[in-house]
Write a structure and sequence with these properties.
By secondary structure, this protein is an alpha+beta fold. The protein has 4 domains: about 30-135, Immunoglobulin-like (Sandwich), CATH 2.60.40.10; about 145-290, Sandwich (Immunoglobulin-like), CATH 2.60.40; about 305-415, Immunoglobulin-like, CATH 2.60.40; about 495-605. The protein is about 25% helix and about 35% strand. Strands 12, 14, 16, 17, 18 and 19 form a 6-stranded antiparallel β-sheet that branches. Strands 1, 3, 5, 6 and 7 form a 5-stranded antiparallel β-sheet that branches. Strands 24, 26, 27, 28 and 29 form a 5-stranded antiparallel β-sheet that branches. Strand 6 and strand 7 (about 90-105) form a beta hairpin. Helix 6 (about 495-515) packs antiparallel against helix 7, helix 7 packs parallel to helix 10 (about 585-605) and helix 8 runs antiparallel to helix 9. The radius of gyration is 37 Å and the shape is globular. Residues about 1-5, about 20-30, about 425-430 and about 445-455 have low confidence and may be disordered. This is Protein BatD. Keywords: Membrane, Transmembrane, Transmembrane helix. It comes from SAR324 cluster bacterium. Pfam families: BatD (PF13584).
Length: about 600
Amino acid sequence: MIKITKFNFTLWLTLSLVFCFFQAPSLWAQIQVQTELSSSTLYLGDEIRAQLKVDGAQRGIKLKFPQVEGLSFRQLGRPSASSQTIIVNGKVSSFKGLVYDIGISAEKIGTFYIPGFQVTHQSKVYQGQSFRLRVKAVNQQSSMKLLTEVIPSHIYLQQPLLVTLKWYIQDNVEDYTFRFPLLEQKDELQLELVENNQGQKTTSLTVSGYNIPFHQSNEVLKGKEYTTLQTTFRIFPQVAGDFRIPKATMKAMIQVGTERKQDYFGRIVRSPKLESTFVISEEKIIPVLALPQKNRPHDFTGAVGQFDIQLSSKINRTKVGDPVEMTIRISGQGQLEKMDPPLLSGVEEYRKNFVTVDNLQPGDIQGDSITFLQVVRARHEDVERLPPVSFSYFDPKQEQYVTIHSNSLPLQVLKTQRVKISDIILPQRQLASAMSKNFQETGRGIHANYTFADALETQTQSWVWILFLILPPGTYFSCLILVSRKRELAGNKALIRSKAAKTMQKKRLKKAEQLLPEQDHEFYMELSQALSGFISDRLNLGQGELTVMDVKKLQQENKIPTQLSGDIREQLESFDRIRFMNQSSTTEQRQEALITIQTLIKQLDKEL
């Protein structure tokens, strides 16, 4: 029988309490859901933000929006993982979980009851708190105006579309919230600001979270004078059909006079009286037309706009067969980064008189021009010029294809003398003797400097002796290189990651394949990690999951080809919609997604 002394009992109790302290969180941990609204009042046509905090889990969460007639909910980007500890008045609270940003918009006015957002984790459903939302109509008599202007009224693919935002103000604005949903597509539309060349005063405004310069001026609208703030964007819609430019919204607190209030010391003072107002611009629908097939030139490479072409070269005198580098400069308005070089193989005079290899390298963009370098070689001495280079593009103003021609350049081509074997060996140019396989002694020529008898004997050493001479040092240096290489690999983490990238992605794809039959959310998460993980390992990037913006940046740095970058971003965006917006897919769709990712990784393996 074991006797438990007081000391042993105390030690046992202490150890038990320590164990319970460390194990307790896993025993009673649960998910807590909390919702915070940016405003309890929503204007018709506007969108307010709700922040949903899910405390207790950072993975495996599925979000479900409530069904409320007249209201629409959408998830704004990916949820962000957050961990924080807050101490208020000596009380410690902590949060470790996911934070969702949710947009709420309305289709009609009224007061709505929202039962709360639901999240599912490990087959358990957790409900957030309910809340009420009041939807008000827009004040048509507001002193503010917000307009969206679009030029032109219709466009062709790859033609730029100019979108101008104008904010008309008459009162002092104390605070504002400016939203323009088009900015959420800025990467897809290749959105860029149009610079102001009129020397106007510039004011920076925050629009949908972006700081954007607006040009300030005074303007009269319907007999009333306004202070006008405006900015212009240039965008390139990528798909033919009706392109929708969403409404811009402005919610502001404006001063409408003064009112009597008590200050901190109880004195009556006059303070600015503020009033909330909301304005909204009209939605615009712009037809985007595909480029016509009729009358398309054979050398058309996809350029859209208005252009000029110029040919130049530093060489005006050469010999037959020598390289001549010429510069082709194309200037004008259009998407220069998508422009391909003119094909010389399509010009008859170049095919006849020059040896050409079409240069497929991207051009050098400087301002509103792009420069291509091309090397040609004259075939014969009758060539007198570098012929004009033709370039075809589609002019959206004329709505037709245009072919332009560059200038030509004078070129003097000298005859090249070809030296034959007979010219070197036989001064008397006896062709039969020149082709003889036997060496002959001669009294003239360079080769006559050595006239001893052993000149006619074979001087070739046995390959066995050569092998014995090369083998020892060759073996030594091979081992030295092998050891150095292993040391280099052991210290080069980037190279190790790059080498292991293929093995890691195979494991991830195998895991995704196991999840294929039933688990929708986990399947697409593994696919996304397989694709982004392969890119991160190959390029030695951070350990986090790649975003669409990261892929776009890699494309701009010429680390990923443009076409491949577009395919990758398209897949990541589709996965995010399924993972974070409660969309579902069939087994066939998941199988197709798996095959697509496998194909993209094979292409990346060749490119990276």
